[in-house]
Structure formats: C-alpha cells, structure tokens
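Quarterly update from the structural biology core.
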Amino acid sequence: MIELIEVTKYYGTKKAVDRLSLSVEAGELFACLGPNGAGKTTTIKMMCGLLFPTSGTVRIGGFDILQQGDQARELISYVPDQPYLYEKLTGREFLQFIADMYRMPATHGRRRIDDMIALFGLDEFVDELTERYSHGMKQRTVFAAALLHEPKVLIVDEPTVGLDPRSIRLLKDVFRSEARRGTTVFVSTHSLDLAQELADRIGIIDHGKLVTCGTLDTLREQAMLEGSLEEIFLKLTAEAEAEVSNPVNQR
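Predicted structure, tokenized:
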C-alpha cells in the first residue's frame, strides 16, 4: 500500500531524505524510528502529498502521489504530531465536516460519527467548542476524524505525545484493530516501547537514510545484540553517525 522508490528530498542545498526505498503492505503495522532531524516527518509529508520528492517515486495503493494525488489521498488519513481543529466548531460539527469532505452518505456518516464518539469516549465534550479542549481531548477527536471514512492507510506522527496512559492504551488497541481489518498503519514515534510492543516491522531512519528495516529479531541480528529495542536503536544510529562522520565514506 505504501511504496517509496529511491526517494530524495532537498530543502535548498540540504538533503533531508536520501534515496530512501521502502514498501509497507496492507494490514501491516509499521513503526518508523529515528533521531530528531532524521527525515521522518519529511518522509511522512511526502507520503501524504504535502511535499513532493526532489527525485524518486511515492505510491499509495498503487497511485503515484505526484501524478495521481487525488486518488492516493482518498486512501489516506494523516494525524500530525500537533492536532489541529477548527476552534469555532464543536467536536461533532468537526466530525460532520470531515464526513462531508469525504462525501460519505448521510446515514452512514452519522452512524460512523456515533461509532467514533463511542470508541474514543468523546461523549462528555463532543458538543463543546473545540477551542476549550485539552491536548488529549483534541488528539482523541483528531483520531476519531482520521478513522471516520475507514481509510486504507493510516499515517501517524508521534501519536502518544501529551496523552495519559489510558488514552495511549486505547490508541494501541485501535492500531491493532485497524491493522487486523487490513489497514496499513504507519507510525513515526520516539516511543521505543510502543514500537517494540506493536510493530510487525520497524524501520530506523538517520540522516535521511534507511539504516535498517525488519522485524525485531532481524534488527537484533543486524546489531548483533539480544537486548531491547533501545539498545539496538542506540547501536545502529551510532554506527550510522560514525559512517556519516568518516570522510572516507563520504567520497
């Protein structure tokens, strides 16, 4: 469902993503890890069609994001690290707006809105203006909106920031449920525990390059460690940093 082929992105002279190739299948729960500034958010924005690659190809559900962007974006829901809502709408009005944007039939749209309100426990505040919401309330409402039209691809950037343990557990359950129904779930996170617990495969990006990608066991083999994901992550990113810093490897 997600395919990146030799994707490179420059901002001026700065290379943010460097010949990145990756494929994520339908029903897969994929975790993307990397240090700050590694290129994760740039990669996500290219998947969503918010940025275009300088070179290379991004496909969603077989649709080229550059040439067939409308078809590709219909398959996607994107939840950024900072939730954004229209503050002069109530939560329910915002959900209805999303349903209308996706041209959902009225009866089905109302049923899905009710389902999402129940799933994310929005009942107590969904009819209040969203300008009054806490960060956690906003995040739950944004996730409700993201899943409303039953996307084929769910792309999430730092989903657990500012959430309490109960909300984090809910999100974990939702991610598993979505993957089971065939949704491709791509999660960029700094939470190594979340990645270790949930992901079918894990990719580590550093300096815009895909350092490694595979199951936790595969990553352990590559790092030659039997330890936690944290230990593996630290070792592989340190090796990547050393490779970049070594002038011999930059020729």
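The chain has nine helices and ten strands.
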